[in-house]
């Protein structure tokens, strides 16, 4: 990290709490003075609560289709349960985390790019003003991927893919470091080998070969958007101990996404 460069970390429920050290690494960096913004997901927990409420789950290109009933559950789980559980976990480690979502203070004004997905913001622009104020105050912002978007009924809460949210925030910061902590060893080609560096042309080649699908596509697209705006973007295996620390130490194991 250089100077006051901001670190944007995307964490997901698929790795946290198993054998990773992500939360401990984030707290250590925060205590060392690194300006860290955490964006979290929660897809597995959302699916569990949707099942409880008998609301079916359906995905298109890795994005959850969200009707009105599903949207209410998604907001409650992401901005409520998961966000505040993570705030408590950071507090237990001695970090002053501040939980918020993209609807707060206009952090993310989204647009509904594909009406077939329902209440899903697939495009948008982040306003980092509030995040910068929190960072200046020495806090650790913890962002849930919920935004607001204009609909025929006015502004409404919408579900934002967590990877897309992290990419939009990184793109708005510009010169920053974006790290996706995943449950795979980075981007893999058709043979299963890790791709060390990936650009838009390689992304399209891998997609045409059938090597890319589902949740990896939003991650790569988010990284590409951030990289075009000056960010350094990595996709690494968050299950590995000290995965995040290794990125900052200059010896990451994963995929660097470049513009």
Overview of the structural elements:
The protein is α/β, with parallel strands linked by helices and 259 residues long. It has one domain: Carbamate kinase (3-Layer(aba) Sandwich), CATH 3.40.1160.10. Helices cover 36% and strands 25% of the residues. The strands form three sheets. The protein has an eight-stranded mixed β-sheet, sandwiched between helices. A hairpin with a 2-residue loop joins strand 3 (59-60) and strand 4. Helix 5 runs parallel beside helix 7. The protein is globular and about 50 Å long. It starts with 5 loop residues before the first strand and ends with a strand. The model has no long low-confidence stretch (mean pLDDT 89).
Summarize the structure.
The protein is an alpha/beta fold. The protein is 36% helix and 25% strand. A hairpin with a 2-residue loop joins β3 and β4 (63-64).
Keywords:
259 residues, 8 helices, 4-stranded mixed sheet, alpha/beta, Carbamate kinase
Q: What is the CATH class designation? A: Alpha Beta
How many alpha or pi helices? 8
- Could you tell me the number of beta strands? 14
Structural class: alpha/beta
Tell me roughly what share of residues is in helical segments: 25-40%
Q: Bin the strand percentage.
A: 25-35%
The CATH architecture term is 3-Layer(aba) Sandwich
Low-confidence stretches: none
Strand order of the largest sheet: 5-8-2-1-11-13-14-12
- In sequence order, what are the helices and strands, one letter per element? EHEHEEHEEEHEEEHEEHHEHE
| Domains, number | 1
The CATH superfamily bears the name: Acetylglutamate kinase-like
Mind summarizing the main beta sheet? Answer: 8 strands, mixed
Shape: globular
CATH topology: Carbamate kinase
Mean pLDDT: 89
The first-to-last residue Cα distance is 20 Å
């Amino acid at each position: 990290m250089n100077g006051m460069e901001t670190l944007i970390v995307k964490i997901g429920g698929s790795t946290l709490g198993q054998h990773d050290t992500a939360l401990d690494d984030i707290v250590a960096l925060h205590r060392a003075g690194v300006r860290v913004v955490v964006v979290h997901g929660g897809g597995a927990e959302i699916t569990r609560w949707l099942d409880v409420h008998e609301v079916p789950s359906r995905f298109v290109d890795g994005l959850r289709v969200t009707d009105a009933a599903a949207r209410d559950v998604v907001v409650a789980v992401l901005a409520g349960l998961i966000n505040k559980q993570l705030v408590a976990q950071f507090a237990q480690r001695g970090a002053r985390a501040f939980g918020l979502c993209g609807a707060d203070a206009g952090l993310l004004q989204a647009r509904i790019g594909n009406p077939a997905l329902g209440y899903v913001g697939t495009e948008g622009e982040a306003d980092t003003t509030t995040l910068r104020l929190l960072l200046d105050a020495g806090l650790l912002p913890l962002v849930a991927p919920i935004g607001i978007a204009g609909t025929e009924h006015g502004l409404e809460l919408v579900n934002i893919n967590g990877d897309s949210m992290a990419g939009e925030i990184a793109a708005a910061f510009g010169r920053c470091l974006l790290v996706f902590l995943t449950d795979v060893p980075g981007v893999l080609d058709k043979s299963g080998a890790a791709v060390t560096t990936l650009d838009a042309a390689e992304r399209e080649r891998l997609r045409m070969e059938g090597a890319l699908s589902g949740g990896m596509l939003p991650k790569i697209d988010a990284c590409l958007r951030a990289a075009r705006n000056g960010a350094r973007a990595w996709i690494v295996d968050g299950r590995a101990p000290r995965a995040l620390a290794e990125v900052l130490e200059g010896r990451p194991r994963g995929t660097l996404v470049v513009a």
